[in-house]
Automatic annotation (TrEMBL):
Originating organism: Sinanodonta woodiana (Chinese pond mussel)
Signal peptide residues on this chain, from the entry's feature table: none
Protein's name in the database: C-type lectin domain-containing protein
CDD domains referenced in this protein's UniProt entry, alphabetically: CLECT
Domain C-type lectin: start-end pairs: 88-210
Pfam families: Lectin_C, PAN_1
Lineage: Eukaryota, Metazoa, Spiralia, Lophotrochozoa, Mollusca
Amino acid sequence: MLDHDFENNLDQSQLLWDKQGISSLLACGSLCNPDPSCRSFFYHPSLKKCLGSQSYKRGLPSGQSVQQGWNYYTKSQQCDGDYIFNKTIGLCFKIYPETKPYLEAMAACEAEGAKLIIIRNQMEYDHVRTALKAAGPLTYPLNGLRKIVLNGKETWTWWNGDIPSHVDWAPGEPNNYFWSEYCGNFMPGDGGQYQFDDINCLSSCSFVCQKNI
């Protein structure tokens, strides 16, 4: 699919390969399509160059100059099943209004080849929170945040072990109510703010799954 936002522009970050002597757009696409790590590609018909990328581009780098002749194409921008594809943040995610405890929610995500959602930055948080607000009533939807003991200290991490760089805790949170709250959720709050909150991992909650793309 041609992306006009990148017409006559080239972003060489996160490239997988740079092929020369590629005679057609079709030939360039045929290099990317069977490669599961290739999400998109740039092609220049005059230079006969094809550049494969491991990501969906979400905006031009600052100070990017015009480079005539380049065009940018993406593979299918759809998610499996009824997952939501958001190109801006490069996520496939699904909101489950039904409720489950943390481990059962994670198992439900994994059964679909997914995991509980990880929020990496403000942009992702804004888009996911907008989707949560639009989803209707939800019961403290779980995310992939959890509290573990790391180097002798209780620490919040994502399920993959990463330390969160962006967590917008609700006022007074995390409060570890009754010393029993070791899992993360989005607290609806007044007006559907969906800020981060800690909750008992055995509490039955809605949840949000995320698939890699």
